[in-house]
Amino acid sequence: PRKRGLPEKLFKVIIIGDPTVGKTSFIQRYVQNSFARDYKGTVGVDFALKVLHWYDSQVIKLQLWDIAGQERFTWMTRVYYKDAHGCVIMFDLSNKNSFENTLKWKKDLDSKCSLADGSPVPCMLLANKCDLQDRKIDMTEIEKFHKDNNFIGWTETSAKEGLMVNDSMRFLVEVMMQNE
Ligand code: GDP
Ligand code: MG
User: Fold this and answer.
1) Residue of minimum CA distance from atom 19 in ligand 1
2) What ipTM score was computed for the predicted complex, to two decimals?
């Protein structure tokens, strides 16, 4: 008998970056299309599932891993990164330090995990809180930085306003699909 329904794919996507850059808010916006001003700083790893209908021919399930308060415990990350298909590294446009630390996050990722064929895990760089006025990092600097450090792409986002949230994830999914 024919299988019913569309073929499905499951991808593990991890979201990393310094505390308070907006990782949890981004996931909430993407999965539930909502924004809350304050989240409790829960400790542990949270999961969220986003189901996408991809070109009407396939269902994609994204298992989103939110590092939830473990950001300082870098020894945690090996377990967390295991078998990831894609990654988002986020910083806050109003926090220069969070931008500089994205390099540490990228190096941590690349040193602890890779795809099954040995290639690096595709990684998007997201410049969150673009709704704020006090930007501390120049666009040209981000552009150069993302190329120099092998990110697949970068964009400004606002989890608050819902700007470029779907589009940035769609770009990552395209790349993960090409890697299949
Ligand atoms: P996390 O620690 O990286 O998970 O960051 P949270 O999602 O908990 O967000 C930290 C704080 O930044 C919260 O007060 C959020 O409401 C706020 N925040 C998150 N995203 C945005 C955004 O796009 N714009 C603005 N203005 N604030 C945001
Ligand atoms: Mg969080």
Assistant:
1) 22
2) 0.99
